[in-house]
Amino acid sequence: MKLIAKLLLTALAVVVLAKILPGVAVEGYGSAVIVAIVIALLRLIVKPILVVLTLPITIVTFGLFLLIINAIIILLAGYFVDSFDVTTIWWALLFSLLLSVFQSILFSLLPED
């Protein structure tokens, strides 16, 4: 149940960020739910692989390259979901940062188990 709540809150954050940021577009709430699911799957499957492959550059940049990896995850979500569009990597980077902030705020509202 908590997983569904987190996905719906992430979808809400995606819709809000798409309204705020001009470089990000999502067609509707159903598309935002699909985007939330795709981002969760990409973070679960692709992100660990990218982190391992880019470990040397991540160490050299003191972990800042992880921000670029998060932006790549957002761009991949835009590639896989036709109704979600991110124009550049800079918008994806800003979207990723703001999504993380919104998720931490919204997830703190959920009751603990």
TrEMBL record:
> What does the UniProt keyword field contain?
Membrane, Transmembrane, Transmembrane helix
Q: Does the keyword RNA-binding apply?
A: no
Q: Which spans are transmembrane here?
A: 28-46, 53-77, 89-110
* Family annotation (Pfam families): Phage_holin_4_2
Q: What InterPro entries is this protein classified in?
A: Phage_holin_4_2
Q: Superkingdom of this entry's organism?
A: Bacteria
Supply the name of the protein: Phage holin family protein
